[in-house]
Design a protein that fits this description.
about 500 residues; alpha/beta; about 20% strand; six-stranded mixed β-sheet; Aldehyde Dehydrogenase, Chain A, domain 2; Aldehyde Dehydrogenase, Chain A, domain 1; homotetramer
């Protein structure tokens, strides 16, 4: 029926579903010949298989990328801009096919998948425009006989390791910046979602990205670690950009030390979502539905700790329960009306289940949901917990699932203290209608991103990056391209007399 | 005689020579009560002793700095500016006393030491001005109901580990930026040169730096490693900035991984100094004398590999020999006319001696010098080697001593290839009078700094930072303060109708 | 008694009260030998006299400034920075003497005059820091064989014509920027307040401003017009910056056309001050007291049309009346407790009186004040009018006196429409505690400056400039120095092969 | 034959040749019903006619643009970006048709016309990207209770008056910036070349530019002046941007004074082209051929005064003569191989003829050319004059024709003095291979643009603008969009305690 729907809509998903990796402009197998299977988390069915590459494949890809860099770095910004724009346009053109692959391999609802492709493509567009704007500086002279300037050059080969929750957008956000800067790329997508990455390569090629500029290597979970190590340790790699868990991020950082590798890290979050008494509660609930339940709670900026001031706590929880009941529908992402696809795998379901159970054991009360959904697929019902305290594990760990845990607080200072009492520092949200409070709280929150009366806080224009253990560097926005540029200070000595 | 000279000049060096560390605005001993001696490399005499602090002392200093940060971060830029400026003015006022301490504990000639203090103070001035200019951005709206801005806030407590070759300037370059940004500081100066660091604290206090904002802890070489580990691993430290060797830098980076610590690294260099046929040879020699023999060859941006095009090679080497003979004088840094002080210690002398001997064994010819200076003190005679090849160890390792190793090359491409064939990427120099060549070569050199017909390439306005294994981040210039700022993206949701 | 107070405070005002103009580093008379008197608006007494220069004096000053520019433009930013800072420090040091001159020649209360000197000096400090930060750009290459940069150079000789209401600050805001940029200056202060301008010259000289860099020419009202014409038409002048009335600004602009002169114009305002129902009324009143009654209502950013939403109108007017009664005191600016000095001259008093009377004739009601103060001096009592409508002349003209005219409105849209229904566009203010409203209204107001819950909106960091007929260009802040810089695009052609 | 060639190439020029003006999204006649004819300067034939609008038509267009502005200003940057990009793409798609219109109505060779369309379209692309990057600033707080930002908003309705020599590019360079900023437009193209302007409107409409956003009004020379006056004086116009002669620019400026209109002026030039002894003479000649003979010498940045150092003067002149003879071909722009189309009209031919004759009378020698071309059309033969002196009128006036006037000089200082001895300051060029000289001379030239060993100095990335009487403001590059933005400083007062 799915295939039927596609056929009727004129889509040709098969043309974008690859079973090879993409290196040096060629579709290649692992040197070992091994492959691994990709499955649909909604039903466990195998979608296909892709090369299970190992460290030697990574080395080959790196050498390709390094060789290619020598020419690519000297292309004009306008030339790179044109290529990125064509890639953007092709992604838009094939939005439905690409979105289908996302829903198939990762489970998010098809409308969400379409949204991701739009978001993903927009990074290519954004960076197609950034490339001509990497202005250097002419420094006012520090001495009569000196003239100083700073130029910004591509840093070299950039390695990327990307996660499964945004299998397309996390790649373009990095590759777009890298290519715009003049870097070449070796990327390793998550083992759960290699198909979306490979589909992007197909379009890159159509867009005129030269062979060797973008290289995507796929591997099973077993080979993830040796490949990661190679990307970190190989001196031909100038930069590594990773989006994923804190634990893996820290491992990569330690492996990067020996080559003084430049790194960008977008790691986990534990986002507070604060509702002050002065807030518009309806707006806050509307915001929370997005911040909490998008991608079934599996984004790194999902609201994790919902802090509600005592004056509106009960009202908020009650209203939220109704909205969850009425607006959320669990099921296969292709099914009309479904908003909540499956979690990525069984382990994820178990983790969420354990968090809910242990919190309930510690005194939290289930208002809505609280359990898995029966039947096949990795589904968990949307859940609302009240009477949650900061000591409960659901408030300490990154839930990464559809569980809204509501904590009551009394004062602004208390809310800020709770919000900041974590080693994470990615996203945060609060709702208020007090101007001074909006400034006080947004300044006090130790997070790289703050939504004030707003939950949809990301876009290509956004400077996305985490504080504390949530990351290093930033992506998107005015500064994202800097992660792929090296600054060079040039000082001319000149003579004043002819 | 030295004391006499000071007395006659109205200096009171004793007032600046401290025997305690400086934490929370107090002059403190190590908790253990231990101390270690500081000696003069010109004659081996003991100058005094300072606390030999350990990891527990570091922890205490970190906690002080973290507590103090909560208030300091909310001071106004203008308030911080005023304090930094007073500090700058006091350094200028006490230039001679501070310079005396440098020559005493580190050996560089007194004029060079005075130069360092001027340079050092200028960073405080530069950052006193930068602090009011950490503009954030108002991002053009990505959606009708959103308003986005990026603000830049102090990152937190900054730890610093600094080297002995610029015992004052490497501190102010970091502390100036940190304080300007609104950070507090825990700094650990090199065990060879703690006195200059402590003297800066005396003036910081006079300037009105509040207690706990700048904390300087001293230790022997034995405690360097545990203190470094603490600075890297303590989660209250948000940022570590290190200037020193690649080996230590890599160790620190690996220790920083587990807290995803933000890092700035200014590590070693292996600077090429290229003289093209079209160059003004006299200017090139003048430049080389500075780039090679300043601080007796012990700076991280010293010319290490002197590449001279075949058309001018002989002429260059002959003229250089004469200039070395006529302009350089070895001796105690206080002695009038001395340009070449001692190396920092015996090991340094042995290393340089070995490099020269092994190169001669491989075919290099000594044109000038080539050996230690007889007598006490860690002196090595200014040395000129010709017929050096890229395979010789003198061309591969960072010499860090007064040895000019001249390599002949034929073509521009060859010179660039040799220059880039190193894992280092800090400074580089070349001399030419061909405009196109000046662009081609400055763009092709894989180094963070390039001098074109100029050897004195640093100043507060300069973006100082290394490529490849020479470092992470940059200091000074337009971007230096960013190393101590965290970027926060704030997205307001707004309603269009009243 | 005044002289006594000064003497007892150790001030030497006489040393700063000049009777000559300042050209080419010399204190000079008019070529004609003529002078004119300066009087105290509090009592009409003559304070002294200064040269009544004419067009030929202006020409001489321009030639001096042009000749001097050839050297000054090549000074280093750091050199100019040092001079400007010394000038700043001297102004701070002599704050009381300078403030005394302001109160004497212009009438504002002594505390206000001290405030002006602090504000005035701060511009010199701000620009002493800006001068080293006039970064040009290295443009990413538009073609393989081109390298492009933009450098920013001083524009040339800058002419300035400044008003009497801020006799010191309006000069330093301009001269600071000009000198920082590398320009030389010919300034013509208002005929009412030449003494403050000349006192600045005394300190400029002490600070090391070279002869001919700052030239101040004085004249009576009769010679203002021919001097203005010369400044506009002389081709040696590259730039004219004027602060004053719209009428004079327009005349100058027309005179500048024929030499395509670059101009900065800070002209009149007709500032709305809007109080929404959600506002904190006490804060709004506190803000209005500053925005309306500072300098007795004689600033170009004074609140002119006070728009109060119907829900708080009565409460606001009643509370405001009490505050005016209790907080304002009219009298000589040196008298303790006085907040309201005289208006600048008799004509000003008559104008204010006419505005009040005609408005009352049209239906406005006097709540407080409404008439001149009896006795000598140009005093007008602080006045509060209610039931003012937008058709009354008090709502259409710039009052430039201590009259608060309160208009009632119903909706946000209505308030915005009223606020924008003027050809002026300088400052505006509104009070609300609704975040969305704060964005909506600040974006909709057609004014160069907006205070949101804040009336003290200026500082050196502020981008000060008017929209519509209120001006051209901006002063202070990040962009102020640009008014004195010319941008030059340099395109190098280079060859890729040696 | 021309029509034939078009037909065979699939072009449909007729679809783009309009006989109506374009206002409020409609093709309209003049209210008076009058029209005027457009002729081909190659043969004098009438190409068609367009409305001869007058002041009342201008008023109507202004009111339309003002009304439309109220909605257009609130569109999102991304929305405007998409529209501009589509317009760019349509221009590229219809390059040949648009180029045909240029050659027909203005005479430049068809390859040059194609080049102009590419250049013209590139401005639309450039500004489609600039629109999302009009970042405001968050100013570091000047006080504890204040938060300051600067936002950049569209300035209002922008009027444009454009010349005939680049009938397409001068429009898009302005309109692109205006639309990107959020402004609406009323444009008046030169009476010689209205067809290219109207063809752009056709494509704007196809691209989705909403009705009333771009309005193009056409008129004969007689109505140019009253329309210009209306554009300058109407208070609904916020900004006027003019490219054309100095004389007209000055008139417009004087008319703008009374509404304090913001203006951008790109006026005439008198470009020096300096060849130093060290230059690569062949490169210099190659550069001069472009700088002098492009568009038959009729660009505002054409080399006007060719200054050649004595050491290479004779060699240069001889070689140049040969190149002129061998490379230039005069004729109808559609004729294959033609590089030199006609001058725009008879008056232009007479002016050039007079300049040549008078210079010869004063001692200049004709090396090549020197006279009109016989036959119909406004042709003048490419001309090389030697022994020209700075006193000759050919060196003082803007030639605007194919005459290369070579002056000999001795020293660098002399060349700079001659170059700067003009009231113009638009473009300049020099050739050298001395690095220090390249810095000295590029800094000393009082011109807004400098080509160093390069004559093709413009591109969308270029900051294009004149110094002295050559203009106000700049176009293109990083700053071009600022001409259409108003800066607003917003200061929030906030409370620190809840």
């Amino acid at each position: 029926c799915q295939a039927l729907r596609m056929a009727s809509s004129g889509m040709n998903v098969a043309a974008f579903q690859k079973d090879k990796a993409y290196v040096d402009g060629k579709w290649v197998s692992a040197k070992s010949g091994k492959t691994f299977e990709v499955t649909n988390p909604s039903n466990g069915k195998v979608l296909g298989s892709v090369p299970d590459m190992d460290r030697s494949d990574a080395q080959a890809a790196i050498e390709t990328a390094y060789r290619t860099f020598q020419a690519w770095k000297s292309t004009l910004p306008k030339e790179r801009s044109d290529i990125l724009r064509r890639w953007f346009e092709l992604c838009v053109k094939h939005k439905k096919e690409l979105a289908t692959l996302i829903t198939l391999e990762m489970g998010k609802s098809f409308p969400e998948a379409e949204g991701e492709i739009a978001y993903s493509a927009n990074f290519l567009e954004w960076y197609s425009e950034e490339t001509r704007r990497t202005y250097g500086d002419v420094t006012p002279p520090p001495a009569h006989n000196k003239r100083v300037m700073v130029i910004k050059q591509p840093i070299g080969v950039a390695a990327m390791i990307t996660p499964w929750n945004f299998p397309s957008a996390m790649l373009t956000r990095k590759i777009g910046a890298a290519l715009a800067a003049g870097c070449t790329v070796v990327a390793r997508p998550a083992e759960d979602t290699p198909l979306s990455a490979l589909a992007l390569c197909e379009l890159a090629e159509q867009a005129g990205v030269p062979p060797g500029v973008v290289n995507v290597i796929t591997s099973s979970r077993e080979n993830a670690s040796p490949i990661g190590k190679e990307l970190c340790e190989n001196p031909l790699i100038a930069k590594i950009s990773f989006t994923g868990s804190c634990a893996v991020g820290k491992l990569l950082l330690s492996q990067c030390a020996n080559t003084v590798k430049k790194t960008s890290m977008e790691l986990g979050g534990n986002a507070p979502f604060i509702v002050f008494d002065s807030a518009d509660v309806d707006k806050a609930i509307q915001g929370l539905m997005f911040a909490k339940f998008r991608v079934t709670g599996q984004t790194c900026i999902c609201a994790n700790r919902i802090l509600v001031q005592e004056g509106v706590y009960d009202k908020f929880v009650q209203a939220l329960a109704k909205v969850i009941d009425s607006q959320l529908k669990v099921g296969d992402g292709f099914e009309p009306g479904v908003t909540q696809g499956p979690l990525i795998n069984k382990r994820a379901v178990e983790k969420v289940e354990n968090l809910v159970n242990s919190s309930v054991g510690e005194g939290a009360k289930v208002v809505v949901g609280g359990s898995r959904k029966d039947g096949p697929g990795n589904f968990f019902n949307p859940t609302l917990l009240r009477d949650v305290t900061t000591e409960m594990s659901v408030a300490k760990e990154e839930i990464f699932g559809p569980v809204a845990a509501c904590i009551k607080f009394k004062t602004e200072d208390e809310a800020i203290a709770i919000a900041n009492s974590t080693s994470y520092g990615l996203a945060s949200y609060f709702y208020t209608n007090d101007i001074s409070q909006s400034y006080r709280v947004s300044e006090a929150l130790e997070f790289g991103m703050v939504g004030v009366n707003e939950a949809a806080i990301t876009s290509p224009e956004t400077t996305f990056g985490g504080w504390k253990e949530s990351g290093l560097g930033s992506e998107g926005g005015k500064y994202g391209i800097n992660e792929y540029l090296a600054f060079k200070n040039i000082c001319y000595g000149i003579q004043h007399k002819a």
